[in-house]
Amino acid sequence: MGLRIHALDAYRSGDSLVHRLDARVKLVLAVLFIATAALTPDGAWPAYALLAALALGVILLSRLGVGFVYRRSAVALPFALAAVTVMFSTPGQPLLVARILGWDVTLSDAGLVRFVSIVLKSWLSVQMAVVLTASTPFPGLLQAMRSLCLPKVLVAIVGFAYRYIFVIADEVMRMMRARAARSGSREGRGGGSVFWRARVTGGMAGNLFLRSIARSERIYEAMVARGYDGEVRVLRPPSLQLGDVLVALLFVLVLGAVQALAQLF
Amino acid sequence: MAVEICIDVQDLSYAYHDGRQALRGVNLRVRPGEKVALVGPNGAGKSTLLLHLNGILRGDGGVRVMGQAVTEPNLARIRAQVGLVFQDPDDQLFSPTVFEDVAFGPLYAGLPEEEIRRRVAWALAQVGAEPYAERVSHHLSLGEKKRIAIASVLSMEPEILVLDEPTAGLDPRTRRRLIGLLQKLSQTLLVATHDLWLVAEVFPRTVVLDEGQVIADGPTEELLADAVLMGAHGLEVPHCYLPHAERHHG
What we know:
A: flat; B: alpha/beta; Rossmann fold; globular
């Protein structure tokens, strides 16, 4: 043992208003924030600024560190590149025409505005998701999903995935270490052909799959041994506190105001 | 419930899907409160036998627990009476938090919420793990996981505890703690292990299993001191049972 992949764990313990807020409230508010960002029209810059300020306020309240949240949310930026094509496909005033592979490609002003808006909106959304996952222990998120009437079996599957991803990642690291330990080579001689290496890697993947199946059988036995009968059961979650409800109301009002402003603009 | 024999295994045989015969006519009777060690080489059938005690595996022959046959209609009751602790705690602790793992058995037994919370607190206290309730299992050390795995069956308040290799992979201090815990438990204990020092210390009675058969069954100090018997079944005589002279040379 001793190999742990804590980097996979998004939660950062701490004591702040955001950490203490009920997980159900946080999940709903984060989803609402993301929906608001998505519904804000292209180029509504003042609305974006307000949303960014709101996100910044939440980040400061959470005491997670602005740098930490911005760095982590930047991970999602490459996915926004999928929206690059809108720059060229949205009709509008041409800014630039280039000839690529015999095609006339036109960059329009409306396309540029739309692209920048999409990147900003997704970045803001990811910021809120980062704050949510970093300030809420995963079991709290699972409980929140259950309370919000997501199918129980689905939540249970997410729970198992979270519980065992670390175990499986440990297993992968042990296998890689075992391979590295036997991969000595004499000077000037490489470690086999690409084909051979691919076969070794394929074998490792297959091995991991078989081990995971065997483990899932043992887990099922452990569940059955304690009375599992095929139905997912959980204890009733505690009721919401007045403070949580007030915070939720305030946040929803702010989001509503931002949205109204964005639509008027 | 007053029964004379709490585990009664008669002529039990079991073969795996691939045809490998794991158990061949095993007989074993355990009285309430007895502490019995099950020893034998790898592949002797120890774990297979343990999995029969609450009906996870069903072989040919008779298994009775607390006077009830291990059959489909009795399974739920028997599983509440036999606490089975698996070798790898990562298999046993499958819930997001320690609390949920320890609460799993009582929850599925259909107990009211108050009683579930009381039992979880009690079981965690038994293994000295009260502060871990809200922790996430994958952050725990192996020793902590082993203790919490035991708590996860203690919360069902079983009459019989069945453990598979409880001390495997533990460092001496953690192992010592676990032995202290095993000595403290009042339940009937049946433990499969390679740790013969543990056997010598905690279990008055030993059963030697090899190739799916009970080879010997008797007082621990007699069996473990029998060098011929131990050697023939891939085991060894622990130092504490060696004659004084051999201890210094051997």
